Amino acid sequence: MRPAALDWSVDNCTIARAMAILGERWTVVVLREVFNGVRRFDDMRERTGVPRQVLTNRLAMLVEEGLLRREPYREPGARARHEYRLTPKGLDLWPVLVAILEWGDRYLADPGGPALTTEHRDCGARVGVVLRCADGHDVASARDVLPRPGPGARPRYATGMASATS
Amino acid sequence: MRPAALDWSVDNCTIARAMAILGERWTVVVLREVFNGVRRFDDMRERTGVPRQVLTNRLAMLVEEGLLRREPYREPGARARHEYRLTPKGLDLWPVLVAILEWGDRYLADPGGPALTTEHRDCGARVGVVLRCADGHDVASARDVLPRPGPGARPRYATGMASATS
Asked: Residue B86 pairs with which residues in a beta bridge?
């Protein structure tokens, strides 16, 4: 059976576009640092071991993509420097990081358990992600979610035949 | 103010471990294909344009990591081949992909809208991710989630002083 997805172009797929940002080595690790309150270049470098030039590039890319912004600060007696803060676009990545953390904790944690956990500010319970539909139903499984062409979907071929044209 | 996170090691961070798998170029795109029902090598290659050798490597890695499994099939008159199916470990990545899709659709979609949407099998409404704590409260914002050391957290230094040792 021919998958229906073959009729649709992936040229404007937003998963691929998001991964062009998030898939760069160390990007998500840098975002994790900022979400954890580690906002300064030297602190990030010391904690993560990311090479200096790579960290410089990643931070510049995240600023350019609008996920982080630079904020000046000055330690007593030192020159003015910048720290990195999340923009709304960056903050909106939090569900992505929590989803990655949950999956990682389930399958990749040390026997002693996860290194990091999350706490709901109001009640102290652990925070995770759940799937929910726009009508408010909880969605238990990936099997209950059907991928469909969206409003911006583009047919791959006018005929819909994958092998008709090159 | 010194961020508390600096006292804790990131050596066993499961976000970094997850990104070592998901961050490889094309990995998430390949998973997207399988979630969309595109399970065969030639179909994936044709739709995504991933170079043949890269796709071979990614699929082998995803099988080795236990996210995909190979299932034999045979077209009439052709030799036996394999298609790729999600394992439970792979299926559990669905919230990660949906979270990436939602963020991508919000910030990176074409003016015409997202290429792909999701549909709840039961009611047809769009499916997204929401943050929820273990006590069942919806969590509206990243600001309501506090990162905390988990059971497997390791102090970075016995003294807790970041600069005391190298």
From this structure: B68
CA-nearest residue of chain A to B5? A36
3-state secondary structure (DSSP) of residue A68:
strand
ipTM of predicted complex: 0.90
Give CATH for domain B4-144: 1.10.10.10
**Using a CB-CB distance cutoff of 8 angstroms, which residues of chain A are in contact with residue B134?**
125-128
Is the Cα dihedral B155, A45, A15, A137 positive or negative? Answer: positive
Determine the residue among A108, A144, A148, A165 to mutate to test chain B binding: the one whose Cβ has the most chain B Cβ atoms within 10 Å. A108
- Domain map of chain A by residue range? 1-90
Structure tokens given for B132? 């929820």
pLDDT tens for residues B87-139?
Answer: 999 999 999 999 999 999 999 999 999 999 999 999 999 999 999 999 999 99
| Least CB–CB distance from A5: residue in B38, B86, B153 | B38
Q: Name the pTM for this structure.
A: 0.90
SS3 A40: strand
Rounded to a whole number of angstroms, the distance from the CA of B121 to the nearest CA of chain A is: 5
Confirm or reject CATH 1.10.10.10 for domain A1-90, answering yes or no. Answer: yes
Q: What is the pLDDT of residues A55-104, one digit of tens each?
A: 999 999 999 999 999 999 988 898 889 999 999 999 999 999 999 999 99
| A22 in B contact zone (CB under 8 Å) | yes
